[in-house]
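M20/M25/M40 family metallo-hydrolase
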Amino acid sequence: MLVVRSRPHRVPGVATVPRPSRAVLAALSAALVLTALPGAATATATAPAAPPTAAAAPDIALDRLLAQLADFEAIADANGGNRAHGRPGYAASVDHIQEQLDAAGFTTERQEFTAGGTTGHNLIAEWPQAATDDVLLTGAHLDSVGSGPGINDNGSGSAAVLEVALAVAESGLAPERRLRFAWWGAEELGLVGSRHYVDSLAPDELASLTGYLNADMVASPNAGYFVYDENPEIQAVFADWFAQRGVTTQASSEVRGRSDHAPFDAVGVPVGGVFTGAGQAKTAAQAELWGGDAGVSFDPCYHRACDDLANVDETALDRNADALAHAVWELGS
Ligand SMILES: [Zn+2]
C-alpha cells in the first residue's frame, strides 16, 4: 500500500453510482427458469425444494498461502532483499506466478508500462470461460518497496489472489461472469500499473468491467478486519462472510484511495476489498474487538526490512483468503 494518500482521480462526467447487481439478476432468472420446469409445481406442493444456490467456495489452504509467501521471501533473499519495481526480485516474482497460472490453464499476459524510467509489468490472467462482456476482476500489487521483501505488503494479497485463482482452476468452476485476475506493478510508486491498465482499456472493455476486488495487506501481524466501503453490495458480501464467523468488520479510511482499487473506483467500476491495517495504531476498542495490542500499528514493519515471513498473522491471512474466495464465487457464479 502507498505511504501517501493519493488525490482522488475522478473522471469528469462519469457517475460512481453502484451498478445493478448481476448476481441478483442471475439469481432471479435462475429462479424463473426453475419455476418453469415441468413438474416443478407438484414437487413444490409436496416438498418445497431448497432455493437454488451457487456452489460454495472451497477453503483456501493456509499451508499453501504460507508456501507462496516463503517463495516470495526466497526470491527477495536471492535478489538483494526486495521485490521492488524495476529490480530482479520483481521480475522473478512475475515469472513465479505466471508459471503457476499457465500450468493451471489460465491465459496469461504481461502488460508493459514505464515508471521511474524503468519498464514495469502487470500480469493479467484470464479464466477462459463465460462471455467477456461481464468481467469480475480481482487483483493485488506484486511489487514491494525497496527497503524489504514485502511479505505482508503485499506478498499476502498476491498469494491470496493467486490461491483463489488456482482454486477456480482446480474446482473447474464454470462461472456466470468472466473471471480475470491481475498482479499490478509499481503500486508503491503511485498505483502506476493499475492506472496504466485502466487507461489502456477501450470504452467497450471498460464497460465490460463490472467489478474489481482488491487485496493489499491481508496478514498484518496486529491485524484489524477492514472491508472497503466504496460499494455497499460488495462490502456486504465480505462483511456477511466475516459476521457468520463471529468476526466484526469495520470500514477503514486508511486504505481509501491508497491502493489499486482507486483507479477503478475513479472511472465508476464498483470496487471492494479486504485489508488488515498498515501504519495506523490499533485503538483500545479495536483491540477489545479483535485481540492484539492497542496503541501499536497494525503492521509495525510496514515498508521496513522486517516485513518478512515472521511479519504475518496466519489467522488473518487464512480468513481473508477464504473471504476473497467466497466473494469471487458469490459475485462471479
Ligand atoms: Zn505498500
